[in-house]
Amino acid sequence: MQSFDKNIGVTIKEIRENKRIKQKELVGGIISMSNLLKIEKGESTPSYDKVVLLCNKLGITLTELIYCHNKYGVTAKEEIIQDYRRLKNSLEDDPFTNLINKIDTYLHSNPPDYQITEMKAVLLAALSVNKTQKFDEAKELVKPILERLQNQNEWYHFDLMIISQSIYIFSEDDAKETIMTLINQADKYNYYVDNNQLKISVLMNIWLYLKINHSILASEPYIDEAIHLCKVHRNLPLEYTAYSRKAEIEMLKGNKDVAYKLIDKSLGFFKYIEDDKLYNDIKRDWELFLENIDVYKYTKELEIGI
């Protein structure tokens, strides 16, 4: 259960006074007036249950209270997690290396944090694959994460986020099972904060796994669902990134005109918003795909299902 520092009460007082809510209005049915006075002075720490009830009376969420308490910012750990979420669906070195350096700084002061430690393992695995084009070392790095999840009946939001970035490292059998579990578990978080971004990321990373395994055609249902979710939730950058993935699928299906329209649509969007990094990444990926199209065209497709 989450614990709070004593100064959380000072933040509660600031919000209460700003909203012109009287103390007697806040305490009703929750705590005594004397306890509220101690909490607001920072002399007593409220329990998690009490804080949730007080938030309801104040008309804010617990997440917002913590955000306000942190001076309208996030903790060092939350900042790392947000950076991890923003990683593109690629194996580019620079963003991974930069985040690893930030993690090392954080872990120097917070060594027991297993979540951030697992995040670092996934990033190191990605760099290993990119450098050596081999998966043995990467598999060893993420093996403890997969073993932990295989012993859980339920996967939680962090689990889904961390494992979706490492699907491509697993063996075919492990990947099939992991992909199906990812999709089923992610669906349970449909109404959770940031889940739409997570589900799209899961689908895009499934595409990456299938491409690495020369099974691009098998990725079509995942890319189609990703595009649909992007449209529903108006996530234009990921939507137009997904069009470039769809272009590869259409090219392999023999729909050359459709493929070029999709890649032109994708590149045109990133040129319009002046995102040179993504524009160049997508352009390079497309050119490499065309250079190696025969490899993808004549490889047996993996059957995973959706």
From TrEMBL:
- Cite the HTH cro/C1-type domain residue spans from the record: 12-65
Superkingdom per UniProt? Bacteria
Under InterPro entries, the record lists: Cro/C1-type_HTH, HTH-type_regulator_Rgg, Lambda_DNA-bd_dom_sf, TPR-like_helical_dom_sf, Transcription_activator_Rgg_C
Write down what this protein is called. Answer: HTH cro/C1-type domain-containing protein
